[in-house]
Amino acid sequence: MPHRPRSSGGHSCLTILLAGGQGSRLHELTGTDCKPAVPFGPTGRIVDFVVSNAAMVGLGPMVVATQYRPVSLTAHLMRNWASAFADGLILRDGHCVAGKQGYRGTADAVAANMAEIDRTAPEHVLILAGDHVFDMDFGRMMADHIASGAAATVAATPVPVSEARGFGILDADAQGQVTRFVEKPANPPAMFGDPRRSLASMGIYAFRWAWLRAALRAELQRPGTRFDFGHDILPRALRDRELRLHTLPDRPDGRTGYWRDVGTLDAYRKAQLDFVAATPPIPLPQMPGGGIAGLNTVMSGFAAQAAAVHGTVLMPGARIARGAHAKHAILGPGVVLPAGIVIGEDPNEDRRWFRRTDAGTVLVTVEMLKRREDAGTMTRAISGYRN
Q1: Whole-angstrom Cα distance, residue 313 to residue 172?
Q2: β-pairing, 243-247 with 11-18?
Q3: Does pLDDT of 379 surpass 70?
Q4: Which end of the chain has fewer CB within 10 Å, C or N?
Q5: How crowded is residue 180: how many other Cβ atoms within 10 Å of its Cβ?
Q6: Domain extents for the chain?
Q7: What pLDDT score was predicted for residue 1?
Q8: Where is the chain membrane-spanning (predicted)?
């Protein structure tokens, strides 16, 4: 029996989660896991934020498009989230669906599953990115999308102009119709009336399925397509004057709604530290079984007992010996920081053994520590031989 999509205000809707990204800017953290599966706390993963938001709305079933190193991700989703979707999770690995080449882009991940989507016969589809930290009411977005009558709606949030080069940037009129879209511009345009901020695409889209289906078929035949929503599908909707804007609402205190692209080591570390505050910026994902995808970030009480630690995040299984010192670091899974080590104070020493960003975040992995220890052992052996 085919899965049937749930309704949104009387309109059937299918949710598609794009969760196949490698996340190369996270470097060694994605050596064995895809970006959505990177830990965010002792039991949670980055993907938990978007799945939690989708589960609360109940627009299932959810199609999950995976590709790069999907094993831990699919195991985590099936173990912790499948029960939250009455119609289940439909796992669609790119190398199984699209052959050796896999999905060629975000839009191809949907195009390659067109037959599966057609079997559910949805009126609308909600496309979600599985690698951001945020809180959003997808039900409200779908209601606004359907009420507008537009073929496509893109979710956006204000970001500082200085940080906007890495995003798709939008502009819209007073009625919410998008008038301009530029993918990762060198000189990002500012929001109307706010020269300090730009409107960035959140990688979340709602489409009338009939329109998107036709657009995907056209892109499959178009020479030079990147099979990408930002580069190909949204510009097509803009040309058709069918692209609407849904802005992430401000928080109750008036601040911009919380959304973080945790695609870099600096952003990943800072996002975890945001949740150490007495009042976290958004609720942590609540797993169906009652567990909380909490954080394993170093807290002041523990730090006082174990080490001098400032702005450091411990990933699952990481520990710090008494007398160690770490500043602005990410201690990878299983890292045991030995007594006497100092990280985050000397950039040259950090870079000699570990990965340090220009902004000062230092990533430490088990393998990096092992190389450092082996080099120290060899140095001591040579010194002993000479003596």
Answers
A1: 39
A2: unpaired
A3: no
A4: N
A5: 11
A6: 6-268, 300-386
A7: 39
A8: none
Neighbours of 190 (CB within 10 A): 16
* Cα 227 from chain centre: 20
* Six token digits for residue 226: 């990147």
Rounded-to-integer distance, Cα 330 and Cα 311, Å:
9
Burial class from Cβ neighbours inside 10 Å (0-12, 13-18, 19+) for residue 176 reads middle
Alpha helices in the chain (DSSP H): 48-57, 71-80, 94-97, 106-111, 114-120, 138-148, 209-221, 234-239, 265-274, 300-306, 347-353, 366-386
Query: What is the rounded distance in angstroms from the CA atom of residue 145 to the CA atom of residue 57?
Result: 15
Q: Which residues pair with 155 in a beta bridge?
A: 246
Strand partners, 154: 205, 245
Cα separation, 24 vs 375, whole angstroms: 28
DSSP 208: E
* Average pLDDT for the chain: 88
pTM score, whole prediction? 0.90
CA distances to 150, 182, 228 from 210, rounded to whole Å, are: 12, 25, 18
Using CA atoms, how far apart are residues 152 and 144, in angstroms rounded to an integer? 11
C-alpha–C-alpha distance, residues 13 and 284, integer Å: 26
What is the C-alpha separation between 133 and 275, in angstroms, rounded? 11
Separation of alpha carbons 170 and 244, rounded Å: 10
pLDDT tens for 212-262 read 999 999 999 999 999 999 999 999 999 999 999 999 988 777 788 999 999
Which residues, 6 or more positions from 205, have their beta carbon under 8 angstroms from its beta carbon?
Answer: 126, 127, 152, 153, 154, 155, 229, 233, 234
Instruction: List the CATH code of the domain at 6-268.
Output: 3.90.550.10
Contact in structure between 140 and 248 (CB atoms under 8 Å): no
CA distance 150 to 18: 22
CATH superfamily of 300-386: Hexapeptide repeat proteins (2.160.10.10)
Parallel, antiparallel or unpaired: strands 362-364 and 336-337 = unpaired
Question: Dihedrals φ, ψ of 24, to 5°?
Answer: -65, -25
- Length of the chain measured in residues: 387
| Coil/strand/helix, residue 277 | coil
Other residues' Cβ atoms within 10 Å of the Cβ of residue 249 = 12
